[in-house]
Specification:
about 150 residues, 7 helices, PGBDSf, PGBD-like_sf
Length: about 150
């Protein structure tokens, strides 16, 4: 199983999270993979993540709250050892984020597909979706700083 959404596809650190329990993403983590998770949370749920965490790509308290809210709304719980959702991005969570991001990638208009071909059009549509999410995240962060 691989990640298929434009934002997550090919991201080795997140692919590892999908396959390996030791690669789960939790508080204290940082890097591009955390930025991508934050972007998806803002895009999908309008998550309110602290601008300092966004700027650093840091998995801090507000990112943890956003992950917990995402998982709680969707009842993402590994019932083999949990009774309720936690704030860790594991196999089930990254799969759900990827599936929802993939579903949010809208196909481009028909005329655009003819000019650029279906594969290029799909990538362009997905990129536009991610850019919108990043723009929303940046606007939210700037509003909080004012």
């Amino acid at each position: 199983m691989t990640l298929r959404s434009f934002i997550f596809a090919g991201q080795k650190r997140l692919e590892a999270c999908l396959r390996d329990d030791a690669s789960h993403v939790a508080r204290g983590a940082g890097g591009e993979h955390v930025c991508l998770i934050q972007t998806a949370l803002v895009h999908l749920d309008g998550a309110d993540i602290d601008p300092a965490e966004l700027n650093r790509g840091f998995y801090g308290p507000s990112t943890a709250r956003a992950v917990l809210a995402f998982k709680t709304r969707r009842d993402i719980v590994n019932r083999s050892y949990q009774k309720r959702a936690d704030d860790v991005v594991g196999k089930m969570t990254i799969a759900a984020l990827d599936a929802e991001m993939l579903a949010s990638q809208k196909p481009a208009p028909r005329a655009h597909r003819k000019a650029h071909g279906p594969a290029r059009t799909s990538a362009l549509s997905a990129e536009a979706s991610v850019r919108r999410a990043l723009d929303q995240m940046l606007a939210s962060a700037l509003a909080k700083l004012r």
